[in-house]
Amino acid sequence: MLAVVFFLSACSPENEGTNARAGGDGGMADSGGASPVTAGEPIAIDSRPECDPLDPSYCAFPYPSSLYLEADPSTPTGQRLKIPAAALPKNTQGKSIHSSEYDTLDGYSPQPQILFYFADLDPEGAADWGNPARSLEPGSPTVVLELGSGRRIAHVLEISQQTTKTDPRRAVYIRLLERLREGGRYGVALRGMRTAGGAEIQPSPAFLALRDKRPSNHEALEKRRPRFEALFTALEKAGVARAGLQLAWDFDVMSQTAIAGRLLRMRDDALGRLPASGPEYAITRVEDFTAEQEPHLARRLTGTFRVPLYLDSVKPGGRLVLDAQENPVFQGWANAPFQAVIPRKAVREGGTLALLHYGHGLLLSGQIMLSEKEGIFLRQQADEYNYLVAASDWWGMCREDLGHIAGNVVPDLSRFPEVPDRLHQGILNQVLLAAMMKGPFAGDPRVTLDGKVRVEAGEVLYYGNSLGGIMGTPYMALSPWVKRGVLGVPGQAFSFMLTRSVDFSAFMLVLTSSYPGNFDRLFALSQVQDLWVRAEALGYGARMLTDRLPDTPDKQVLMHIAREDSEVANKASEMLARAAGVPYMTPGPSSPWGLKEQPYPHSGSGYVEWDFKAAPAPQGDLAPDANNGTHLMIRALPAAKKQIDRFLRAGVIEQTCNGVCDPE
After folding, report:
1. Which of 156, 153, 62 lies closest to 108 in space, CA to CA?
2. Which of 26, 160, 441, 607 has its CA 20 to 30 A from that of 630?
3. Residue 305: which of 409, 437, 419 has the closest Cα?
C-alpha cells in the first residue's frame, strides 16, 4: 500500500560553521574574493540561466545543489531555497511543480536523494549495497564530505533502474546511509569513473572551467567560483585531489527549525489552549457485543475529541495558515474522530487495562483497525494482554485523503504541499489523543463499564504499524507524555521508499501520464522530500531518543522489521534505526551495516528482524514483482505479541523466539 501515497546531529547552534558565512550571489559565495583565473580563451558554455551547467543532462542536475540557495539572514542557516519555476518539471497540462512553499526552506533535506547523470556509467569500484564501507576508503571514486569537519559520509552509488521507452537514460543516485547534520554544509565529489566501454568520463565544460581555473562566458558560473574554491580546498584537505575530479558540488542542509519548528509551535500553542486534563471529548456511540458477535471485545466506543486547528480547512487539501514569520496560526477548533475498545477478557476475568494508542496503516483509519477485518490481530492482542486501545486517523494519509491525493495532488505536484501540511495537523491530533486517553476519559463510566473494569490512567503506550510506524516516529519525538512505543515495519524517507514498494509499480503509469519525462519524475520525487521531511520519520528519527526535542521525556522504541519486506524496504528501516541510534537485537537473521549489535535481553530500544524466508528484494529502485506478504505477518505472531507486551509494560526486549525470530 505504500505506493498509493503518491498516487492517491543535530547541530547547535544551527547557524554555526560555514553556513553563517553564506553570502550573496544566490548564496553561492563564501567570504573572500574569487580565486585568480588563468588567462586564455573563455570556455563556451551553453546553458539556460535557471539551469546548472555542471551537469548538462538535466536542468536541475546535480541535485541538491547550492545553486538554488540565496542569502537570507532571517533564517537559522542564513540561506533560503529559491528554485526558479523554469527549472522545474511541467506536467502534461504545462504546469510547473513550483510552489512558494519550497521558498520557506533554509536548505535541503537531511538525507537527500542525490541525483546526477553520467552516460553509460560503469559503477565498478564504487561503494554498493553489498559494501557500503568502501565509500569511506581513501580511494573511493565517490566522496561525500562534511565540509566543516572533513568527515566522510557513508553512502552507496546506485544507478536508477527507472527508464521509459522514449528516454532510456539511467539517472545516478548517491544514497546516503546516514542522516546529515542539520544546518551543515556538504560536498559531493566524483573521480576516476569510466563508462562500460572503459573510457574515462570527461568533465562538463562548466566544471572544467571551475576545476582548472579557466575563464568561461557564463556570468552566473563565474559568480560561483569563490564557493567552489572553498569546496576544492576542503576536498584537498581530505585527500581528494582537485586535478582528478570529474564533477563536484556542494549543498546545505536545512535547520532543525525548518524541519520541526512548525510542529513544535503547533504543539506548544495547542497545549496552552487545552484544559490541563486534556482535550474535551464526546462519545457518540456505544456498542456492546456478545461473544458470538465479537469474541474479543465487550464494548466499542465511537466519538470525537476537540483539537485546536491550524489549517484553513479540515478537509483534504487544507493548508496551514502562517503568520509573517511562517509560524502556524490558530484557526479555531475542530473535532477529530476516535474509536476505543474494551476487551472481553477484562470484563470476564477482571484485571487492569493499560492504555494503548494505536497508529493505523497507509490510507486506512482508526475505525478500520478497531472495527474491520484488517484489525483482528489488534483486537486479539487487546483481549489477550488487557489493553484499552484507542485510535484516530492520520490526517494527510488516511482513507479520507485517498481521493484527493489520487485526483488532485499526483496529477499536479505543485499541490504537493497540501500533503505535509495536513500531516502536521494529523500528527498534532494524535499527540492530543494520548492526552485525552490519560485524562478523565480513563475513568468515564462508559469506558469502565460502570466500574466493571479498571483502567491505568496516566501512562499511554504507543503501537503503530506501517504508516503508524513511520508517522509514529514524529509522534514519539513530539509527545510530552508517551515514553514507550512499538514501531512496526517502519522506515524513513518516503521518496526513497516509494519506488521500492510493491504497490507503487501499479500506479507508476498514472504518475507517468502526468510527468512522462523520466528524469522529471525522479527529480520530482527527490524535490518533494524536502517538504515531506517536516512531517515524516526522516525529520524526527534523530530527535526521538537522543538530542530530543524540547519538553519531551526519555523514550524507548521497539522496531519490528520483516526481512525482505516488499512494502517498506529494509534499507529504509535500517536508515531510521541508524538515525535514531536503535541497536540490532541478536541473534538475528542478518547484520545491517552501521547498526550496533545488542544481545537479548535488553532494557532500552531495539531493532528486531523477523525472517519469513522470503526471496531477496531487488537491489535498485525497483519494487518486487509480487507482494510476499511479510509486511503483515509479524503483528499476528504469538511470539511478537508477547515481546511487544513485555516491552510496553516493562521496557525490556526479551527473546521470545527460539533463536532467530521466524514464523516457527
Report:
1. 62
2. 160
3. 437
